[in-house]
Write a structure and sequence with these properties.
It is a single chain. With about 220 residues, the chain is α/β, with parallel strands linked by helices. About 40% of the residues lie in helices and about 20% in strands. It has helices spanning about 10-20, 35-40, 60-70, 85-95, 105-120, 150-165, 170-180, 190-200; strands spanning about 1-5, 25-30, 45-50, 55, 55-60, 75-80, 95-100, 125-130, 130-135, 140-145, 145-150, 205-210, 215. Helix 6 (about 150-165) crosses helix 7.
Length: about 220
Amino acid sequence: MRILLIEDDHVLGAAIRDYLLSAGHAADWMQRIDDARHALTGVPYELVLLDLGLPDGRGLDLLRELRKADNAVPVIITTAQDQVSVRVEGLNAGADDYLVKPFDLAEMAARIAAVARRYGGSPVPTRVAAGVAVDLAHRQVSVNGKSVSLTAREWAVLERLLSRRGAIVTRSEIEDSLYAFGAEIESNAVEVYISRLRKKLGREFIHTSRGLGYQVQE
């Protein structure tokens, strides 16, 4: 997933960013609302982790701006404020979930996966096609009942394809799920990961539409 992290605490922000990157996500870390607002205008993020108390304003104001502009990107609020009234205000403003600091990074990952499943239109985490069973919740995949191991970036590509199952996903869309701002994009990275997935999951699992992109059929 391409995730926007908005957090002004340097230690926590670095820890969350590194954790997301290790899990195969592309994570852009912003520490001010203005920078986050600029990023949101140019990148189709799949999820936002939003701190409420930021140096140049309130995170809730940014959330309200997004919803007023009909931007439905999933938003998980992260804050040290644990009062019920604050949580209610955030949810009413359009947040999808809430994490109270300090929180466990594994719980954060589980909440991200849960929100992503809801927006993907399938609350059931297991998808099956061409003998391939994928459990997105637990990051497990098997081929004809035999477990297969995937790297973090292979998972990132697979999740992007499954999130648009039946549709053609372009090379640039897949790159968005692999790379954050400032990262050097390898010219043949997408082709390499598609090739690796085909070797592990079967050549018929991912279809190529020449000049357009890749597809996992319904």
